[in-house]
């Protein structure tokens, strides 16, 4: 049975999944360069950041992170599920875990970026209440980037 777990920013398995994600995105978009904001899991070592994963039998199958922007906002980064584990709800489990942790850390808002060809990701985010916002930061002016936000309500 897969379990959601906190990962250390130095977890090499998470770094490997994030590298695989970037390779897959370059192939999907026909790019030779990494189009996403430069990112390393070690950026999550600071206060208010979180790295979650789904493990099964010691293997990391999915991951995602919250990167603190400021006291009220965090960005969801590097959501990824290995191809052979897709369709099992692991990405949703990571996203819900990140949303829960965001609330617990006192964030009022989560933001994220995905690509316009990533239908499964778009569907996941919209199903959880994320709404489109103007492209921000690194993604401003990138035509096939889609940015989203979710206003968090405090946990009951």
From TrEMBL:
GO molecular function: acyltransferase activity, transferring groups other than amino-acyl groups
Pfam families: Acetyltransf_1
Domain N-acetyltransferase: 10-153
Keywords of the record: Acyltransferase, Transferase
Family matches, as Gene3D superfamilies: 3.40.630.30
InterPro entries membership: Acyl_CoA_acyltransferase, Bact_Acetyltransf, GNAT_dom
Protein's UniProt name: Acetyltransferase (GNAT) family protein
Organism classification: Bacteria, Thermotogati, Deinococcota, Deinococci, Deinococcales
